[in-house]
Structure prediction request, 502 residues.
Amino acid sequence: VHGALTIEPVRPRFYLPSLDASGVGELGEDEAGHLTRVLRRGAGAEIDVFDGRGRMFRARVVEAERTRVVVRAEEPVAAAPEPAVQVTLVMSVLKGDKMDAVVRDATMMGVSVVQPVVAARSEVALAAFGRAGRVSRWQRIAVASAKQCGRAVVPIVHAPVTLPDWMTRASAATVLVLSEPSAGPGRSFGEVARGQAVDLVIGPEGGWTPEEQCQFSEKGACFIALGGRTLRADAAPVAAIAALFEAWQAW
Amino acid sequence: VHGALTIEPVRPRFYLPSLDASGVGELGEDEAGHLTRVLRRGAGAEIDVFDGRGRMFRARVVEAERTRVVVRAEEPVAAAPEPAVQVTLVMSVLKGDKMDAVVRDATMMGVSVVQPVVAARSEVALAAFGRAGRVSRWQRIAVASAKQCGRAVVPIVHAPVTLPDWMTRASAATVLVLSEPSAGPGRSFGEVARGQAVDLVIGPEGGWTPEEQCQFSEKGACFIALGGRTLRADAAPVAAIAALFEAWQAW
Prediction:
């Protein structure tokens, strides 16, 4: 069978963060519209719903109008397993839609949190995020990516902060900072003691300033090198998360 | 220093595949145009040239017209180190410009060869590659990506073949096939005996057919799983190559 072939999941997946112990919930407006207008389903349809916090259910639509869809969860179903380490991706913000791709890919790879930061050499200033609705856009992208990859967990995407602000926050996580080949030899993930939670920090194309490097060291961070080729900032998260999960057998 | 900051390599890099023992060579038309028209450099300028086969030199422009630029290599310079394992990425062709991104990313990650294949569920038929100039486009993308990541090696990008055609070819490489979470448990890269050369095979979004899976097994291939989330086909190469290099310490 040559040619195009699209494999749909058996049941379409819907995000239902309000799902509670009653098992009955109402889809948000976007999700309701997707069900009624795009998929043209109505009362009686079987779907999957996930709460974004790790639970997924086979569910039935019990009421359906254009933007009001009520569903009843019927039976837990297995979602894609979560990795064995909680990763917060601390990512220098990128220009244009590259950050969208980072949020999408990080969700697919299994991160728990995305924390955009503005470092000295970041391509975008913090002021650019004032009214732009970028954070809610990234949250929608995280939901869409979770659906696609089968996760029942939607990562939290925080609003950007400056790197100095992020530095001052206390965290029990192991801080691993990706370093550029030009910054000299770093350690490999396999050399770092395995932790439950990791703050994985990825910098701008221009690299870290010497001041930032000192601040990371004072914070007890470990610098990680991934070979000698220079990775594009937007591709680095997938490479780094994959290498971390492989080294720690945390897939 | 907040705001945009572009870090240029000290010397611009040019691809000079015709570089021979004489040390004098003429840039191709695209590269010559880039030097004279985009960068506005002329005779006397210092550049780096790389032959695509692993050698990079500091060089001087000795003659420069619009499309004719002659350079003389002066001194070898260190390029980004190559990985310790030779990877041929055997990739089910993807639609639209997704394959461009795969070639770009695979080059950055350090593959030696890209072999596009058309599998049963691939999104594009082999006939689509007849006159489209896609292969030469991919080769140009590989050159551009090598420059960006600092490699002096440009991967060979072959013309697409059908998966059955590829299967019949003899190869001394270890064949590792990425498998979908839905295909059941696979092995991890760390469980596979380290080899000098790997054919890393990545399938279409729709997965492999049962027949294809049998053929891979008959070829002695090993199925590799990368966790339980479904990876998008265009993002899978970076994740798989990173995990392989990490597992084999081959970065």
About this structure: The first strand of chain B starts at residue 13 and ends at 15.
